[in-house]
Amino acid sequence: MSNDLDFEGWVCPLPLRDTPTIVMGHGGGGAMSGELIEQLFLPAYGGAARAELGDSAVLSVPAGRLAFSTDSFVVKPMFFPGGSIGDLAVNGTVNDLAMAGATPLFLSTAFILAEGTALSDIGRVATALGKAAEVAGVQLVTGDTKVVDSGSGDGVFVNTAGIGVVADGVEIGPARARVGDAVIVSGDIGVHGIAVMSCREGLEFGTTVVSDTAPLHGLVAEMLATGIDVRVLRDPTRGGVAATLNEIARASGVGIELVERDLPVPAEVKDACGLLGLDPLQVANEGKLLAVVPADRAEELLAAMHRHPLGSGARRIGRCVAEHPRMVVARTGLGGTRVVDLPIGEQLPRIC
């Protein structure tokens, strides 16, 4: 392969062909992120890359199956209502493993520190990270630290990688959604993104919006213990519920139909989104999951989720349908439908 990238040879004309440099939208988890991966990284990796590059990979080893995941965290500010970049780094990686049905065991932690950052702030981040690991029951087993000169970084960036064990018989993946399946969300959506944005911009909405950052593997364990065929699990982080459901629809070939009145959007999130011109479905979450399960077992699964603190607000929000394959739509209160498209770029940059 040539060392020179041929922009004119890329398949998708927008937005990559018209933006020969990286913009914030490339990190938003939406269409621009997907195009960056599909049109630049995967061709560059060649035969070394697995086609199903995702948030985590399930790998067969002689003793069974392992889940492996890596993630980077660049949230600004480092501290926000309900959390910090430290606990977010642990919870985000734990959740990526949990969405593969894995029991998280080990994490690595790598810090990139900007020259001039207060040691007290770094200490707060590290303490929060350690406490989150203890709560999640994972061990921090290896790590790295780098420092960049002032102006080349911004406070603290954290990279984590995680390893977990997948039990025999657990098969979870976005391509497993089937027509007729129910779509479930574990609780209120849009909370994390609004919490970070309100803190960053000094916005007040009459009440403090607190991030939902939390480790979800305990809730997932309760769900799997029911014996129900949980076909798909995903945590709707960057790009929110909209991006995650679009990825599921495209991977499985089904259509997904949501019912807008059933979407659990807290009043403060709804008000903030109205003020800022945001769609709550595209706002990031850090302590919620989406599940796709057979419709005839959905109520049983919901009952199990409601018994867990992180699933007490779980509800059914839609279904998989044969119509409009590979698309997501929402039925409005007026009886019409609207397309819930994959966001192009980043509504709220640097929220994780």
UniProtKB/TrEMBL annotation:
Domain PurM-like N-terminal: 55-166
Gene that this polypeptide is encoded by: hypE
Domain PurM-like C-terminal intervals: 178-324
Family membership noted in the UniProt record: Belongs to the HypE family.
InterPro entries membership: HypE, PurM-like_C_dom, PurM-like_N
CDD domains from the UniProt entry: HypE (cd02197)
A Pfam family of this chain: AIRS_C
Single Gene Ontology BP annotation: protein maturation
UniProt name for this protein: Hydrogenase expression/formation protein HypE
